[in-house]
């Protein structure tokens, strides 16, 4: 049945009177005056297909097997539905049971479960309303991201998952080794002898594909990465995963203004794409999870973004008359309370803050001529704060070398990154978006563990 046209979402489009077969999992079953009503869902859309089984049509032993969680096929005729919210329902003529489900032990009962409970049932939660909606939106968002970049001629590049250079220092890294932990080889000085390890040196799971992305931008002009990244940060927050997906475009011949314009166009495009294609799922989130979701998304998709410099931001925050938990002074990193004030109260729209002090930003960001700021940008959005971080990259060999030295980074490890500036360097820029943070924004889901199929967090890697 791997044919489009036969999903439940397609059956809703078919004319009354047509004979069809629907396959899926039973959400609920209700019996009334000898008639049985079954809500069937195959994941293709939010709406369940209502199956109506009239008395005497289906053998009793088949009927008893139709319980919540069971997997069945229903052949029958599409008829006009008297129920509101659906045009058609399926009048069953025969039913096949693929897999039964013991109602006494099936974990997803009709009553609402907590997100924590469902997290422990990650093998079954995709069948729930909430997670059905989450993963359809995740799918649409992923496709929107590819579509946006492909339409603009960007090359999709697969940067490595295993890396031997802790280059970016974006976060704590997971080691990758085949050494025998019980019997580690040692050097004469007593250190672990990574020379005997698989790669002949320490290796890690990547925290970002940016530096390799720059290599490709300086060959293919415009590229993007979209893949898993890893951070061994032992912080149990609702916004951090140990394994998450990141999108990192990198553009040659692109300065910070172009970068900012692309980030705005990108965010608007992917939000509008999901608004257009996942309306029933988003309506569910708006109704059941966070009643500001639709309003903010529609606003962000249409309102022009505000642009201020970091220096402006500091004056605005100082003049706000607020008592900040984190002190505001030139040189301080913006905290969530500051970001939310700017975007939710001061400007009431997304705000791009640029030109941050160099000491709070990464070494690869391009120096401004003022000697104290760099060409960095953060896109702040209402309800969440920072959603995208990016910069124009330092393309000048001497300046970059100086910055690596000033931050006391291991110069040798950056040999190829420096060589990019020696052979055919060009102004270039890029940004990064965390897929799961974007999904939290789209769905209103409060915990990042609930927007990824199988979350990896400290102490937890079941499934
Ligand atoms: P934060 O301050 O929230 O930890 P960061 O400054 O470490 O974020 P970056 O290094 O700029 O984040 O990473 C780029 C993007 O990746 C972030 O904007 C965010 O969307 C996402 N991100 C970062 N760390 C995580 C994580 N542990 N889990 C999920 N997404 C993350
Ligand atoms: Mn972090």
Task: Describe this entry's structure for a reader.
- It is built from 13 helices and 16 strands.
- The chain has helices spanning 8-11, 60-65, 115-119, 129-151, 210-220, 256-277, 279-288, 293-302, 310-319, 336-346, 397-406, 415-419, 435-443, and strands spanning 19-32, 35-41, 49-53, 71-80, 88-99, 155-156, 162-163, 175-176, 203-205, 222-230, 243-252, 306-309, 351-357, 373-381, 385-392, 428-434.
- The mean pLDDT is 95.
- The chain has two domains: 8-106, Nucleic acid-binding proteins (OB fold (Dihydrolipoamide Acetyltransferase, E2P)); 127-156 and 217-228 and 235-449, Bira Bifunctional Protein, Domain 2 (BirA Bifunctional Protein, domain 2, 2-Layer Sandwich).
- α4 packs across α6 (256-277) and α4 packs across α13.
- It has 463 residues and is an alpha+beta fold.
- The strands form three sheets. It has an eight-stranded mixed sheet. Strands 1-2-3-5-4 form a five-stranded mixed β-barrel.
- It is 29% helix and 24% strand.
- The longest helix is centred in the first third of the chain and has 23 residues, at 129-151.
- The protein is globular, with a radius of gyration of 27 Å.
- The chain starts with 7 loop residues before the first helix and ends in a 20-residue tail after the last helix.
- β2 and β3 form a beta hairpin.
- The protein binds adenosine-5'-triphosphate (ATP) and manganese (II) ion (MN).
- The site of adenosine-5'-triphosphate has 16 residues, from β11, β15, β16 and α13.
């Amino acid at each position: 049945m791997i044919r489009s046209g036969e999903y439940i979402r397609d059956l809703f489009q078919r004319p009354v009177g047509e004979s069809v077969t629907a396959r899926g999992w039973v959400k609920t079953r209700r019996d009334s005056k000898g008639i049985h009503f079954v809500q069937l869902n195959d994941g293709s859309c939010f709406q369940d297909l209502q199956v109506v089984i009239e008395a005497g049509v289906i053998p009793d032993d088949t009927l008893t097997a139709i319980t919540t969680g069971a997997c069945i096929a229903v052949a029958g005729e599409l008829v006009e539905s008297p129920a509101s919210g659906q045009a058609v329902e399926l009048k069953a003529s025969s039913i096949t049971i693929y897999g039964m489900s013991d109602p006494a032990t099936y974990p997803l009962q009709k009553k609402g479960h907590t997100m924590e409970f469902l997290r422990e049932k990650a093998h079954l939660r995709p069948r729930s309303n909430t997670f059905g909606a989450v993963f359809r939106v995740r799918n649409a968002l992923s496709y929107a991201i590819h579509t946006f970049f492909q339409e603009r001629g960007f090359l999709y590049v697969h940067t490595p998952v295993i890396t031997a250079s802790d280059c970016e220092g974006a976060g704590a890294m997971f080691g990758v080794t085949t050494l025998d932990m019980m019997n580690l080889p040692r050097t004469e000085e007593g250190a672990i002898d990574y020379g005997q390890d698989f790669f002949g040196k320490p290796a890690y799971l990547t925290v970002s594909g940016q530096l390799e992305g720059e290599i490709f931008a300086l060959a293919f002009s415009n590229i993007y990465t979209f893949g898993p990244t890893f951070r061994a940060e032992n912080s149990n927050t609702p916004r951090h995963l140990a394994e998450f997906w990141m999108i990192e475009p990198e553009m040659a011949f692109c300065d910070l203004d172009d970068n900012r314009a692309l980030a705005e166009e990108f965010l608007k495009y992917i939000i509008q794409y999901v608004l257009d294609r996942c309306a029933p799922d988003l309506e569910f989130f708006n109704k059941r999870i966070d009643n500001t979701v639709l309003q903010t998304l529609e606003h962000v998709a249409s309102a022009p973004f505000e642009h201020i410099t970091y220096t402006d931001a500091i004056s605005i925050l100082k003049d706000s008359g607020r008592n900040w938990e984190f002190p505001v002074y030139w040189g301080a990193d913006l905290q969530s309370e500051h970001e939310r004030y700017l975007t939710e109260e001061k400007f009431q729209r997304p705000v791009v803050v640029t030109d941050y002090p160099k000491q709070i930003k990464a070494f690869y960001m391009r120096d401004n001529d003022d000697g104290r700021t760099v060409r960095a940008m953060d896109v702040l959005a209402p309800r969440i704060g920072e959603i995208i971080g990016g910069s124009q990259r330092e393309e000048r060999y001497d300046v970059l070398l100086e910055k690596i030295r000033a931050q006391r980074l291991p110069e040798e490890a950056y040999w190829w990154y420096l060589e990019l500036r020696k052979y055919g360097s060009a102004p270039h820029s890029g940004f990064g978006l965390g897929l799961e943070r974007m999904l939290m924004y789209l769905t209103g889901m409060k915990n990042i563990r609930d927007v990824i199929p199988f979350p990896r967090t400290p102490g937890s890697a079941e499934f």
